[in-house]
Every structure is written in C-alpha cells, then in structure tokens.
Fold this sequence. Notes:
It contains 15 helices and eight strands. The chain is α/β, with parallel strands linked by helices. The protein starts with 11 loop residues before the first strand and ends with a helix.
Amino acid sequence: MIKGFKFVSTPYIEFGAGTLRNLWNIIPKFGNRLLLVIGKNSLIKSGKLGEIIKNLEKKQLNYSYISISKEPTPEIIDNIVVEFKKSSLNLIVGIGGGSVIDGGKAISAMLTKEDSIRNYLEGVGTKLHDGRKIPYIAIPTTSGTGSETTKNAVISETGPNGFKKSLRHDNFIPNIAIIDPELMLSCPSSVTAACGMDAFTQLLESYVSSISSPITDALAFNGMTYMKDNILLACTNGASDINVRTYMAYGSLISGITLANAGLGIIHGLASSIGGFFEIPHGVVCGTLLYEATKMNIEKLKHNKSEGIKYLKKYAKVGSLFLDSTLEISNDKLETNLNSLLDKLKNWTNKLNINRLRNYSIKEKDLNRIIEKTSMKNNPIELGTENIRKILLSRL
Length: 396
C-alpha cells in the first residue's frame, strides 16, 4: 500500500556541460537590470566571471555584482537589500556555492520588504513572508547543498545564542536552475569532498526518512547510484574529468529535490545546531558525522523488531551498490550489505580526510547545548541523548 504524500514543484532545470551559455538568452526575458550574487573568488579564479561580464555587456544589460564569502547572516542580507532597494532590479542571479545560492534566494525575497529578514526566519521572527520576490536564477558552482531546487534560504548567526534558520515559502523555489558541471572543474578538493559528502548525506537521509515516498525513494537511490563511484574521483585524479563532475552535479541536484520532499535526519539536525554555535562549513559537519550517525541509526534499528526491518533493508539496499549483489535484500544478505555501506562511508571519511569537530574549537563541554538544540527531523529511529553524544564524541 502506498501512503499519501506531497511533492513540491521544482525549478525549470537546464542541466549539462556548457549550459551556462544559455543564460545570455534567458536574462532578457526578465528585463535588463540584474544583480549577480557571486562567491569570494571561485568565479574569478576559473575565469568565468570575465566571460559572464563580457556576455552581459555584449547584450547591453545593466548589471551589478556583489560577493557573499561565507554563510549569509541577517546583517549581510539586510545590508545588500538596503544597497539595491532602489535599483528597480528585474532579476537576481546567484552563481556560487550553497551560501551564494541561499543568499541570492534571500535577497530576491527581501527586496520586496521594508524590514529585516530576521523578522521572517522560522523560529526567530514572528512574521510570515507573503512569497513576493524578484525573479531568481540559481547556478551552483559546487556539488553539495542542492539549494538550487529548494524553497528555503538558510540564514545563520554564529555565537552563544546563534542559530541556523530558514526563510521559507513555496514561491522561493528558483525560477530557473542552471547546472553546468564545467563550473565545478576548478572547485578545490577540500570543498569538493565536503560538498560531495553533504550531497550523499542528503540522498541517504531522505531515502531512509520517516516521510519518504516512492518518488523520493526512486530519486534518492538513483542519485546515490551516480555518486557512489565518483566522490573520491572528484577529489583526486578525476577532478578535471567532466563526466565525474557531471555525475556529482546530478547527485547534488537530486539531493535538493529529495530533501525538499522527504526531509532529512539526525545528521542535518546536528548540522543546524552546530552551525549556529560555531563557524564550521555545513558540508564538513555532514561529512564528518555521516559514518558515525549512520552506524548509530543501524544499531538502534536492529533493536526495533517492528519498524526497524523496513529501514534496515533500505540501508542494506544502498550497501548493495558497493557489492556485486542483487538489490533484493534477503535476510541472509542483510548484515553483509549493511556492513558494506558502513565500510564505504568510513572509507570515504578517512580517505577524504574530513575534519573532526575539534578543528573548529568544539569541545566536549559544548555537547550538551548542541544536543539540546538538535532536532531528530525525519530520522528513521528516535535517538536518545546518550546516542547523540556518542556520535559527537566519536568525531571530536
């Protein structure tokens, strides 16, 4: 029996190597005054910014550009909105990593408002956004967050009372998403590793989510199929291989669609609370916790005789991707396939040298406040305080 589910819309998607060139013909359909939101230096180093500007000027388009070099804060968004409030912009184009894509999404939404974005953040403000925005095109340069397909912009404020919260509305899904793997060829290995682990985490967590559906299951499993052989390659001798980068970009794209519809689990629950307290890249949190959290989930599911087997078979099916075995998981193959998954996640964590939490000044004394702020989200099994503490201690 298929239980009821909802599935949110996706942007119009242009995917494939070289699709950036389509941007020059798309922009005039919205108008001739646009704001480019870019990262700190990725576009400049790749030489793509010069190409973009050359084509904008060739089309006689009026443009400005600003950079967002870290996860967007309320102050960053508010200041940019004030600067461009009277510019009569027709379009926002975000070209960069997850922070840039989220930042552009937030700017397009807040240019229609007179007050701070803080007032509209879930769990922080008291106002509901009405969904009015400036049209937005999202163009990722990393394979990680999948933000180019989601309806929320993650805004952070780091500190003792910090938070990582969303500005959310169905209308905030980008109008168009252009995914060009050529933009990812110059992405550094450390960023590629963290982003790749984040994307795979999103696929795995949405696949075993308590609210997954047949559609999200099919998409998530398909995304993992494309990513499984390319995460290590993208960070090593396959970094300049456009096929490898294309597979990674596809997995990331799909992860955004599945997380938007199936939700995520304990890893992203922890990433939210940790990211509010400490300056740590989102992908690093997910990457460093992926193996240990998955191992804990599997251990707990084995003790749940009624519901556990359903999710254990899902984890085992993912494990079968790394074995020459059937995707139909029989009881005698269950343990073998579960171990296959855990061995692969542990191998990735070690070979990619994903940083530990202590590299970002996180100490054992900080764990209580992290756990207190952490949501289970749609984790397949409820984890207790000591279970979560064990996950965190293992990656300090």
